[in-house]
């Protein structure tokens, strides 16, 4: 922070009154950059050559990263970071994207490290922020001595663009009853799981006293973490593999062995770069990789649409085309099964038409599966739930209901009348009092329903009476003789 009366100097100038050149510049009053890059050289005085470059830096003036490295920074002892790029290329540059701050104070819960039991905290607004609280007595009925706030889905998944950003949160606690001696608990404050790895911040980072509120800021870089349960450093490859598919973020809830504590959490934010962000903080620690065909994402950590990450492997993993015949955007990384088949297709690989459709989905067009027309495709005149395509006979309907005949249910059967080929038309039983002679085709007019050939001994427009020379009951007993 500047002191009162100090000037805000232009680049290259320094001093209380900007009356000298800054480190790495010379020639006051016209301060010009020295030969050796302040960011990339190890020279004590960048104006005194020759330039000696940091390990990952090259160039006569030590002003550029070696191939396979990016993001030249003065505070990086090696100068540049290694390209991760999921092992698919070593060509990358630093991004000029800016960070967006993600905050979602919905869906948090408490859990132990195994994550088997969940406890829902209390929630209220505090200072314009959502604040969670948990009574230690209530939590300890089901949770172990050390338990954690667990982040909801907004903070999880693919977070490679959070590299170099901040994870920030505010914690506090107090006691419901006076405690004699507060014994502080020494644990990791943050644990991140992903890519079959669990990494954590050093133990005892936050030494929190009762009624004290503490805001913690963790820079998301490998140096901030170790492999959980060990002192082993986290390599850049391991760190980026975790960020590529974050499964859990755990923030320590417990800071004391006192049983009467009430623990609180609020304002959890994570910074992640994206193309739509209008923030001012440039995400130079986010790499932009020159990915081969089939690979996507800033670090080649994703696949093109209609591709899958075989077995879900990030580093060195393979993006292979889905076998969905163009009917699904995504397929399961492990099994290869297609997810959400479209275009009226179904099956593990969208390889068959749904019931009520026919065609060959393996042709790979949106029109592969057509609606069955039995005989018309409109619902009022589609009388068979299924159909298939026969090379010799064409479209064949499988389940024409009673009263319909023809390969497409397009005609009325004997004893029925109607016009199934006209929208709204259907086949109805002929109203002939069950006195038709079906042994003779055409016994009932298939269009009008008129009764044409009654059974022997019956007659009338509806075969409703006994013929001349016969007696009996044609309607009920049907015993004309």
Automatic annotation (TrEMBL):
Disulfide bonds: 9-18, 53-62, 341-350, 400-409, 454-463, 466-480
Subcellular location: Secreted, Extracellular space, Extracellular matrix, Basement membrane
Superkingdom: Eukaryota
All residue ranges annotated as the Laminin IV type A domain in the record: 103-288
CDD domains: EGF_Lam
SMART domains cross-referenced by the UniProt entry: EGF_Lam (SM00180), LamB (SM00281)
A Pfam family hit: EGF_laminin
Keyword Manganese appears in the UniProt entry: no
A Gene Ontology term for the protein's cellular component: basement membrane
Keyword terms of this UniProt record: Basement membrane, Disulfide bond, Extracellular matrix, Glycoprotein, Laminin EGF-like domain, Repeat, Secreted, Signal
Main location: secreted
GO molecular function: extracellular matrix structural constituent
Boundaries of every Laminin EGF-like domain copy: 1-33, 34-82, 322-371, 372-429, 430-481
InterPro entries the UniProt entry points to: EGF, Laminin/Netrin_ECM, Laminin_IV, LE_dom, LMN_ATRN_NET-like_EGF
Name this polypeptide is given: Laminin subunit alpha-2
Biological classification of the source: Eukaryota, Metazoa, Chordata, Craniata, Vertebrata
GO biological process, one term: tissue development
């Amino acid at each position: 922070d500047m002191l009162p009366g100090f000037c805000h100097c232009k680049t290259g100038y320094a001093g209380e009154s900007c009356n000298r050149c800054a480190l790495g510049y010379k020639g006051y009053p016209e301060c010009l950059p020295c030969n050796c890059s302040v960011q990339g050289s190890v020279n004590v005085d960048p104006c005194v050559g020759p330039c000696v470059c940091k390990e990952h830096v090259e160039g006569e003036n030590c002003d550029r990263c070696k191939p396979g490295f990016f993001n030249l920074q003065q505070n990086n002892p090696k100068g540049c970071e290694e390209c991760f790029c999921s092992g698919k290329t070593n060509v990358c540059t630093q991004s000029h994207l800016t960070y967006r701050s993600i905050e979602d104070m919905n869906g948090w819960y408490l859990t132990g490290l195994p994550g088997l039991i969940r406890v829902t905290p209390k929630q209220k607004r505090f200072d314009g922020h959502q604040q969670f609280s948990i009574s230690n007595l209530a939590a300890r009925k089901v949770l172990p001595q050390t338990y954690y706030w667990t982040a909801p889905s907004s903070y999880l998944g693919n977070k490679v663009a959070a590299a170099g950003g901040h994870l920030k949160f505010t914690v506090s606690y107090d006691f419901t009853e006076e405690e004699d001696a507060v014994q502080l608990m020494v644990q990791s404050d943050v644990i991140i799981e992903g890519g079959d790895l669990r990494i954590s911040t050093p133990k005892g980072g936050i030494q929190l006293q009762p009624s004290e509120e503490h805001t913690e800021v963790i820079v998301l870089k490998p140096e901030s973490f170790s492999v959980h349960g060990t002192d082993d450093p986290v390599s850049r490859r391991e760190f980026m593999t975790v960020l590529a598919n974050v499964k859990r973020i755990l923030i320590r809830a417990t800071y004391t062995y006192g049983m009467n504590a009430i623990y609180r959490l609020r304002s959890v934010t994570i910074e992640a770069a994206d193309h739509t962000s209008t923030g001012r903080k440039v995400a130079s620690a986010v790499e932009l990789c020159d990915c081969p065909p089939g690979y996507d994402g800033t670090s080649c950590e994703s696949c093109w649409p209609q591709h899958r990450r075989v077995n879900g492997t990030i580093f060195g993993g393979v993006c292979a085309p889905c076998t969905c015949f163009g009917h699904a955007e995504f397929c399961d990384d492990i099994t290869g099964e297609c997810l959400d088949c479209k275009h009226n297709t179904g099956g593990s690989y969208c390889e068959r038409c749904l019931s009520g459709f026919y065609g060959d989905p393996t042709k790979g067009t949106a029109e592969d599966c057509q609606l069955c027309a039995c005989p018309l495709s409109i619902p009022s005149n589609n009388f068979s739930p299924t159909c298939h395509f026969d090379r010799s006979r064409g479209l064949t309907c499988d389940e024409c209901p009673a009263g319909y005949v023809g390969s497409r249910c397009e005609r009325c059967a004997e004893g029925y009348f109607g016009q199934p080929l006209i929208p709204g038309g259907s086949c109805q039983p002929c109203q002939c009092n069950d006195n038709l002679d079906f042994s003779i085709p055409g016994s009932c007019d298939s269009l009008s329903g008129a009764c044409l050939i009654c059974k022997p001994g019956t007659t009338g427009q509806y075969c409703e009476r006994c013929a001349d020379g016969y007696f009996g009951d044609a309607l009920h007993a049907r015993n004309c003789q």
